[in-house]
Predict the structure.
Amino acid sequence: MALHPTNDRAHALQAGWTRFDLGGFQCTVVTDGLLHLGPPRNTFPKADVEEIDDLLLQAFLPTETIALDQNVLLVNTGEHLVLFDTGVGINAELGVKTFGPNTGRAIINMRAAGIEPEDIDIVALTHTHPDHCWGLVDDNDRKLFPNARIAVSRADVDYWTNLENIRDSMSDHMKDHFYGAHKNLAPYRDVITFIEDGQEIVPGIRAHATPGHSPGHTIYAISSEGHTLVCWGDLCHHQVLLLRRPEWAFLFDYDSSIAAATRMRVLEWIEKQEHQVLSYHFPFPGRGHLRRNGDGYDWLPSPIQLERA
């Protein structure tokens, strides 16, 4: 077998974006980079460690570390360009400092996909945790999406932007949840639309309240020409552990019992309706379907839509 010399082109990584159609809507997914959370036994604190290891080994995944993708969705309805969440952002003292230099890639990948931040009409937030809203402003607190209005639940804004909720007993990382949300949302205060459960934010995109992981966590059902894609944010963080065991708690849940009950209810609805899913933290690009498997679900990823010849 002939061996060929390596070169920079051969080592180049794939593009950080992909595109697909949903009925008459054009959807683009860009990556904001990987989040490394460390040992999964710490991330799922009430789960049996042996069962965690067993589920991961069955899926050919490492047992000593867990990494979550950040799949940022953009939907062009023909009348509106809607961005769902923002990634951790480019701020040197918050996003990059907290999550590492390989994060904060959403805008770079957006531009590679032919989309400028100025083009965004609406930023629809599932919630205001760091990896979902810290990409709203730059290092100088300037809007990165100057022409966009923000759609978000009032409960999340009221809780996470209120600096009086910070307690001395909190870790520095948890304190930053509040500082970061306040910093990123304040410049948009005059263009925030507080969304209600069941509200249509633009024709074809409807918000549904799914509290638990965060006080006002929200998912979005995106529908066109008989097809529905559910953008579910942090409803479910891991394609194996929280699908096979949806009752498990996740370390960063605001209320883990409510989060688990919400997750089980929504997963059942999605599977019965055979809706497609865009999961923020599943392997890129996070698009697929659910199939019931006992008390949990299997993840059936959709193929990436490649460039047409």
User: Anything to note?
Assistant: Residues 256-273 form the longest helix (18 residues). The longest strand covers residues 25-31. The CA atoms of residues 30 and 110 lie 6 Å apart.
